[in-house]
Specification:
With 446 residues, this protein is α/β, with parallel strands linked by helices. Helices cover 35% and strands 19% of the residues. Strand 1 and strand 2 form a beta hairpin. This is Phage shock protein PspC (Stress-responsive transcriptional regulator).
Length: 446
């Protein structure tokens, strides 16, 4: 007769693989914020790999600082549920949250300054994809190995261990408020009290215990004047280093801008100074989390500096640090250059004396980084005009004098014909471009 009962030696089904550990910042394997240690534990890789990659990405475009700063803010520490970003939003500011925020701001500033370099961005993207693929492969390999190991182990187990014997909970014999009856009818009486930390006995309505006023040093510890009472401790506020950090940031910003003022465009020079100041602010916030303290003013100046750095990256490269005045007066068609460029200042293209016979077309381009561009065209010339102003004003013939209208992104294409009663001469094809400032086109009186 065949038994339908399962055999004791039958192997149980293989156990399911444990999920990967949750992503948490490491407490023991941490150099700055424990992000790389947590990534190594999550993906079963050496944290040094992530540290090297983040360091390379930080230097090449700032993406490493952006990633590490936001990861520090969003990933909770091991054993905790709240992240630094949540604490920061709830008003609980700490040195770690400020350091993470500053790191992200510095990374964003460096990243904005390298947007024009496609090679750097391509290298950062390829390296990030390679590390991500390696991490996913390592995690799947670990999960597959653990599943196979558990299957082999489960096949060798024959008898499951019995669960531990249940025990009755301990009996708490001390009286307490939730075990004794509570009088709710408002009648005068005596209530038995038995707090673990307070007086024991019968409590009257006037606060007496067993008819006596409890002594301060009997049940509640030593009295205020007794020798057994410890002396109150006085906490000393850490030394403020906000003023020193601000002074060092000013010096670093001045040096960074001054050393590049004569050899680089205005935007690049400002970026160097602001980046140096931002680095000093960041270092000061990091130091304040271990030694000394900084106030709200330092945090505010850090955010302002990061915003100014982002604006400096948007300045056109043609804006120079030297303000000049330049006037071009070509006397013949052959003398008209195809391009006229000026970094910063006032540029004037005077075509009043340019002989322009009928049927002749002259083409030129004039660009000014920041300042004013004035173009004076002959009275009888037909002007095909294309003008672009990044931020500023555009004045054309026929506009009311003094009508200044500053707006971003001006782009005008227009054909200007000679005044009535004037025989048309040749054609001027003008391309005018100003990054920040004004374009003014006027027609000569004669």
């Amino acid at each position: 007769m065949t038994s339908s009962m399962p055999s004791q030696h039958e192997a149980p089904p293989p156990a399911e693989a444990d999920p990967a550990p949750p992503l948490r910042r490491s407490r023991g394997s941490n150099v700055v914020g424990g992000v790389c240690g947590g990534l190594g534990r999550r993906f079963d890789l050496d944290p040094v790999i992530f540290r090297v990659v983040i360091g390379v990405l930080s230097v090449a475009g700032g993406l490493g600082l952006v990633f590490y700063g936001f990861a520090w803010l969003l990933i909770p520490l091991a054993g905790e549920d709240e992240s630094e970003g949540r604490r920061l939003l709830m008003g609980r500011v700490s040195g770690a949250s400020l350091a993470a925020l500053l790191m992200a701001l510095i990374g964003c500033g460096i990243f904005l300054s390298t947007l024009h370099s496609g090679t750097v961005l391509g290298f950062a993207l390829i390296l990030s994809l390679a590390v991500y693929g390696s991490a996913v492969w390592s995690q799947r390999r670990r999960v597959g190995g653990e599943t196979e190991g558990r299957s082999d182990t489960a096949a060798g187990l024959t008898v499951a261990e019995a669960p531990p014997e249940t025990k009755a909970p301990p009996i708490f014999e001390s009286p307490s408020w939730w075990k004794d009856p509570i009088v709710k009818d408002g009648s005068t009486g005596k209530i038995a009290v038995g707090y673990m930390w307070g007086p024991h006995g019968i409590l009257d309505e006037d606060g007496r215990v067993n008819g006596e006023v409890p002594k301060p040093g009997s049940q509640w510890g030593p009295g205020p004047s007794e020798p057994g009472r410890p002396a109150p401790s006085v906490r000393r506020s850490p030394l403020s280093i906000g003023g020193l950090v601000f002074l060092l940031a000013l010096i670093a910003g001045g040096l960074g801008t001054g050393l590049t003022w004569d050899t680089h465009p205005l935007g690049t020079s400002l970026q160097a100074g602001l980046a140096a100041a931002l680095a000093v602010f960041g270092l000061g916030l990091v130091v304040s989390s271990f030694l000394g303290r900084t106030g709200f003013g330092t945090v505010f100046l850090t955010v302002v500096t990061a915003g100014l750095l982002a604006l400096a990256t948007a300045l056109p490269d043609r804006i120079s640090t030297e303000w000049v005045r330049e006037t071009w007066r070509p006397a013949s068609v052959a003398a008209v250059q195809p391009d006229y460029e000026l970094g910063s200042g006032v540029g004037t293209l005077d075509l009043t004396r340019l002989p322009l016979p009928a049927g002749t077309t002259v083409t030129t381009h004039v660009g000014v980084g920041a300042g004013q561009l004035k173009v004076i065209v002959p009275k009888s010339a037909v002007v095909k005009l294309h003008a672009e102003v990044g931020l500023g004003d555009l004045q054309l013939p026929g506009a009311p004098p003094g009508d200044i209208d500053i707006a971003p992104g001006r782009d005008v294409t227009r054909t200007l014909t000679p005044p009535a009663g004037t025989a048309p001469a040749g054609t001027l094809d003008l391309s005018l471009e100003v990054g920040l400032g004004q374009v003014e086109v006027t027609r000569a009186a004669s």
